[in-house]
Amino acid sequence: MGFYQDKILPVLIARGMDNKAMRKHRPRIPPLARGRVLEVGLGTGLNIPHYTGAVEHLFGLGPARALLEKAKPQAERAPFPIDFMEAGAEDIPLESHLVDTVVSTWTLCSIPDLERALQEMRRVLRPGGRLIFLEHGRAPDAGVARWQDRLKPLFQHVAGCRPNLEMDRLIHAAGFRFAEIEKTYFDGPRFISYHYIGQAEPR
Questions:
Q1: Confidence class of residue 49 from pLDDT cuts 50, 70 and 90?
Q2: Rounded-to-integer distance, Cα 203 and Cα 200, Å
Q3: What are the structural domain ranges in the chain?
Q4: pTM (two decimals)
Q5: Which residue of 24, 43, 47, 49 is 20 to 30 Å from 76, comparing CA positions?
Q6: Is 126 helix (H, G, I), strand (E, B) or coil?
């Protein structure tokens, strides 16, 4: 990794992932996790305090060592064991059908090969397991979507984020069926605030 990706970008991500809107909606997702859990994009561990006693073991995946190091204080206070895995989501270092829940919050937009990563998430889920997600993505309004397309190169360069991905289509194409899904705007600029929240099972 270069200096920006290794030193600057993790700091920007850590700060950006703890804004007012995220603090409001983050608690919706972790309490749904059960059993052995894989969190894709663990980051600095902001989801860890919101998991419940239904979690037996957490695998925290992330490509940036600097962010995983920042998650360790949260991990020390968790009532369940946590294994940190420094790796990309395109090659998850877990056996097939090992986990009961995969959790992703504001992560999918930053994965370079998202299609492959979603297939990997499906691979490690046991039959009947669930992908639980909260992600921003492409808005249904044509004018907003055009701005998302225009801003994608800048967002991707500065923060590694693609704001114009159709998350529901991509998740379904990777072999999932939706148990439930909500699509709505959160507070904030519309080009970055359209969200997909839901649960999906391997088909």
A1: very high
A2: 9
A3: 3-202
A4: 0.92
A5: 24
A6: strand
